[in-house]
Predict the 3D structure of the following.
Amino acid sequence: MTSHRPNRPEEHAVTTATHPAPRKVTRPRADALRNRERIVTAAREMFTEHGPDVPLDEIARRAGVGNATLYRNFPDRDALVREVVCSVMDRTAEAAEGALAETGDAFAALEHFVHACADERISALCPMVSSTFDRHHPDLEASRERVESLVGEVMGRAVTAGQLRSDVGVGDLMIAVAQLSRPPAGTGCPQGDRFVHRHLQLLLDGLRAPARSVLPGTAVTVGELRQCGTAA
């Protein structure tokens, strides 16, 4: 006698491939992004005022965040310094893009860019690059290449218009702006800012074509500045 046993549901179940549920992409919350930006802004201000060795807890205090928030975003000083340098270079690149968007006088656009650079305190970048700083970090390289390309375009347009002397390189311009927008961090000279744009205008007048003198040596490249350790 044949026995019949009841069919179990699992014996007739169709085997289907299982796929993991799609992950949601985690995006930083708006308040986290604001905190990060406040930290970078405070760090840029304090590095400019006091140099790159300012205590990180002082930066957190100015940013209005706790130390834990600062370290969650930037695990060490180098990470924060790198972010500040990239931030300044990105804002410098944006100033160059603004100059390129101007449709009028090419040299006037160059002037606007140079004065905007001074307002970004690019002179503070030099002392911020310490011996332990990774100058070849991919983020820095990308920001640097963007700045070099855009500044070259701004200057090239003025040269093509016959307004900028042709024996000046991007490195010449950037190091001159950095030098003239000092005093360096920590010198305690709050009156220095009122001289910066005056001296930059003297520089710009000397850059106009036709040149009244022959410059010694050759145009300085940004690559040469990097080798000397005077550029970020």
